[in-house]
Amino acid sequence: GENVEQHPSTLSVQEGDSAVIKCTYSDSASNYFPWYKQELGKRPQLIIDIRSNVGEKKDQRIAVTLNKTAKHFSLHITETQPEDSAVYFCAASISTDKLIFGTGTRLQVFP
Amino acid sequence: ETGVTQSPTHLIKTRGQQVTLRCSSQSGHNTVSWYQQALGQGPQFIFQYYREEENGRGNFPPRFSGLQFPNYSSELNVNALELDDSALYLCASSGMTSPPGEQYFGPGTRLTVT
């Protein structure tokens, strides 16, 4: 069935360094790829997304890349700050359909 | 913060009981999706409601059921609760006034089954 794999499960970086989280999806019909940030005890918050007709999208310190051929997409955070510490989830869907989530990456940014 | 609200915030139930969770969608949204998030895991899709009809269902048994009302708010009902139903239940709204596929989550209901 549909599946999204996410790596790594935990990531520790020094403040100011970059962080990269990678996901792979199984359903080639997927065309929408959002990323959510979830702080402890809070709701998942949409931080950036990309659609299948685009290869890269950037929003300030956050960027997402998509390789449709390899069915890979990645989240890049530059100049990390302590407030970036959270669990990040990738997801994939077909248009307005259900979101299939990855297993999450716990990012810790040390001052 | 999104305009999606959920009630109650927390709930404790006994195995075998029934529970109803509620979700109010963001203004301008006509679609509600429900997800179950077990501790330390990603959200798992339960089902989606669009114009008061179920519009897709994940791998959950029939004792998980739902409703959507004319004002687009929604309920999730779970019968014959099991210990493994303990989780954070999230609803997400989407539709008319947001780009296709974008879903905005409510704060969730933390259900504990003892």
- Mean pLDDT value of chain A: 95
**Which residues of chain B sit in consecutive blocks of at least 5 with pLDDT less than 50?**
none
Which chains make the largest contact? A-B, 24 and 26 residues
Order of helices and strands of chain A: EEEEEEEEEEE
Main sheet specs of chain A: 6 strands, mixed
Task: Give Rg of chain A in angstroms.
Answer: 13 Å
Mean pLDDT of chain B: 94
Shape of chain A: globular
- Helicity range of chain B: under 10%
**Shape summary of chain B:** globular
Distance between the termini of chain B: 32 Å
Strand content of chain B: over 45%
User: β content of chain A, as a range?
Assistant: over 45%
Helix percentage of chain A? under 10%
Order of helices and strands of chain B: EEEEEEEEEEE
Structural class of chain B: mainly beta
Strands of chain B, total number: 11
Major sheet size, sense and barrel closure of chain B: 7 strands, mixed
Low-confidence stretches of chain A: none
Number of helices of chain B: 0
Description of the structure:
The complex is a heterodimer of chains A (111) and B (114). Chain A has 111 residues and is mainly beta. Chain A has strands at residues 4-7, 10-14, 19-25, 32-38, 45-51, 56-59, 62-67, 72-77, 86-92, 100-101, 105-110. Chain A has no helices and 11 strands. Chain A starts with a strand and ends with a strand. Chain B has strands at residues 5-7, 10-13, 19-24, 31-37, 44-50, 53-57, 64-68, 74-78, 87-94, 104-105, 109-113. The mean pLDDT of chain B is 94. In chain B, strands 2, 4, 5, 6, 9, 10 and 11 form a 7-stranded mixed beta sheet that branches. Chain B has a 4-stranded antiparallel beta sheet with strand order 1-3-8-7, with no helix packed on it. In chain B, a hairpin with a 5-residue loop joins strand 7 and strand 8 (74-78). Chain B is 0% helix and 50% strand. Chain B has 114 residues and is mostly beta strands. The chains are: A mainly beta (111), B mainly beta (114).
